[in-house]
Amino acid sequence: MSNDRIEKINANANGASKTDFPKTPQTLIPAISLLQFPFTLKQDQTAAVDAWIENNYRGTILYSTGTGKTEIAFECAKRFLNYSKSSVPLYHSSAEGKTTKNNLPLLTDVTSVGIPTQSTDIESDSVKKGNIHPNSIRYSFFNILFLVPRISLIDQTISRLLSYGIQEEKVGAYFGERKETKEIVISTYQSVIRNLNLIRRSNMVIFDEVHLIRDTAKSFSKIFDTVVEDPKKAILGLTATLNESDFKNSTILAVLPPVKRYSIRKAVSDKRLAKPVVIPIKVNLTEKESKEYDTCSTKIKNISNRFKRYDVNSMTALLKKGGFASGMAKAWFSNVRKRKLLLSYAENKLSAAADIISKKFPDEKIMVFSETIESIERLRDALKLKGINAKIIDAKVKTMERQKILNKWGSDFNVLLSLHTLEIGYNVPQVRIEIIMATTSNINQIIQRIGRVLRKHEGKDVALIYVIYVSDTRDDNVIEVVKKAIESGTEDEDHAVKGEEQSRKVAGKYKLKAPKDKPKLKVKKDIMENKGFENRVEKAYGIVESKLLEPNILEQKEESGASDHNDQNKKRKTKTYLIRSKTDKDKFYKVDIENKTCTCADFMFRHVKCKHIIATEFILP
Predict the structure, then answer these.
(1) Strand 184-188 to 144-148 pairing
(2) Which of 95, 145, 460, 605 has its CA 20 to 30 Å from the CA of residue 30?
(3) Cα(209)–Cα(198) distance, rounded to whole angstroms?
(4) Which of 151, 143, 154 is nearest to 70 (CA)?
(5) Residue 468: which of 247, 246, 285, 200 has the closest Cα?
(6) What is the pTM of this model?
(7) How far is 323 from 326, CA to CA, in rounded Å?
(8) Which residues, 6 or more positions from 607, have their beta carbon under 8 angstroms from its beta carbon?
(9) Alpha helices in 88-228 (DSSP H)
(10) Cβ–Cβ < 8 Å for 328, 308
């Protein structure tokens, strides 16, 4: 490398002239090495970084929304840089001008991203004083490509990098007309497909929301084909959800296998996320809607039975055949669409959502998710009749307009209505209430939606998630999906479940006796008793709802409990809660959550699990 070219790199990287060598040490090191968090990473975050490193700087970190995946990614990049520097110099120029390099990718545009880096403190000090010529400096072309699914997430990611000490001139965005090839580039999946050299020039590629680039889109395969060209390239996947049993994720699992998991349940237990309290709201179709639903369902069933095709993929194949079969496939899709629309804007569903907003929380910021634009438009109109202003954000709303709407949320209006646009990456930690108008049983969507309101915020330890569903329809299984999303187990438990599922498949294949389920206790249920319990659950939800508006559940310090039977001198500690009476504001009921006892009449005299105990269980991690 000639002296002139080295000086040109210095000038472009540091804003210096040929004879004006860098004066500050900061300009002599790769941008990511300047990363400085204004906080200490949590133990689970450092564990994720370590797991990724142990897997040879490749793999997916499967962490629930709100647990700092982006910060984990930044730390991974910094740690990979340290590894690269310690193992072999990225680039080194000898005094004779000859250049040797390892196998890390060479930049095509060094003038915009070439960053000289310190190799030792002595060298750095000498360069700072101007005693070392640039020919003797090591040059780092340590490029990082951070891929996100949506343009709206680009500036959000850049802002976080800048807030952690990365220099603005070292970070660029690449999409549309904005094409900035700098040391750290934030781009979208769609943009990088059209310029795969962005991947080739990078030492590390980060895939945000990696679950979205499944095998269903052939164009995404180009990304994976390119990223594996260089076996020394570091690659990191980030997601809150990844179905490992879905064959459409096989490429993701092959290139970026999960290396560390952190479920919602575990994060709540560690008090990293607010406790989600799922409140199911069951509604029925009107008589007219019920007839329409049954008509659609019958047509769908008849067409499926006729052609022995029961899913979207097989019906899509039938659609391509043309003729009568194609016409029937079109009819199948038409009725599926009609049924979905009907469920999404069912009269009682819209009414229930409007009542929650207007009667329970008229002054709270609320996020509402639905499946169709028709449903949220109708809900917006229904709220308007009640004097409540609501705004819609969907894919048609441009980034700038979307930001204006979000800036006014909580001041000009309180209700934000969305389809899928705000499911991913949008952070609203202060929001405590979410309404999901069902018609989806997609666990990926459910996890993303729940994650919007679980982020911790001052004074926020509980988030209410209302799930409005139509009974006796395809909505019915949504509550189970929501519970599964929240209560999904730890890594070991996941593996245990998979092992059991696999053993059942093997048993079926070889006609062996399948493993038996654990025996269930047979309990004789009394109808009136069940009805009474359901009523207490409803009242418990009311207590939790009130908690968001006033401090009606107070945690007491640990106090001495009953003596231990084995040691009369030993006193155990118990945690108790005081729950304010709804009728007498000066009266509190005392709940011992460990022993499931309460001082209310229901428990003391009727010996039933009272609403106070149930409510306390709802809010505890």
Answers:
(1) parallel
(2) 95
(3) 19
(4) 154
(5) 285
(6) 0.74
(7) 5
(8) none
(9) 110-113, 121-128, 152-163, 189-193, 197-200, 218-227
(10) no
Question: Which domains does the chain show, CATH number per domain?
Answer: 3-262 (3.40.50.300), 287-343 (no CATH), 346-487 (3.40.50.300), 527-619 (no CATH)
The kind and range of the H/E element at 208 are strand 204-208
Whether 472 and 447 have beta carbons less than 8 Å apart is answered as: no
364 exposed, middle or buried (CB, 10 Å; 0-12, 13-18, 19+)? middle
**CB contact at 8 A, 516 and 506:** no
Strand duo 597-598 + 588-592: pairing: antiparallel
In angstroms, the Cα distances linking 110 to 13, 127, 172, 231, 352 are: 9, 21, 14, 23, 59
Cβ-based burial of 266 (10 A; exposed 0-12, middle 13-18, buried ≥19) = buried
Q: Which of 160, 184, 231, 239 is nearest to 207 (CA)?
A: 239
46 burial type by CB count under 10 A (0-12 exposed, 13-18 middle, 19+ buried): middle
Between the CA atoms of 172, 175, 177 and 180, what dihedral angle is there, to the nearest 10 degrees?
Answer: 20
Q: Tokens 């004006």, residue? A: 20
Task: Output 375-381 pairs: Cβ under 8 A, ≥24 positions apart.
Answer: 375/341, 375/344, 375/345, 375/349, 375/350, 375/437, 376/417, 376/418, 376/419, 378/345, 378/350, 379/345, 379/350, 379/353, 379/354, 379/417, 379/437, 380/417
Which residues fall within 8 angstroms of residue 482, CB to CB, at 6 or more apart? Answer: 278, 436, 446, 450, 465, 467
**Interatomic CA distance for residues 2 and 22, integer angstroms:** 18
Phi, psi of 100 (to 5 degrees): -115, 150
pLDDT band (50, 70, 90) for residue 289: very high
**Segment 577-618, tens digit of pLDDT:** 999 998 888 899 999 988 999 999 999 998 899 999 999 999
In this structure, the number of other CB atoms found within 10 A of the CB of residue 440 comes to: 22
Structure tokens at 19: 């004879």
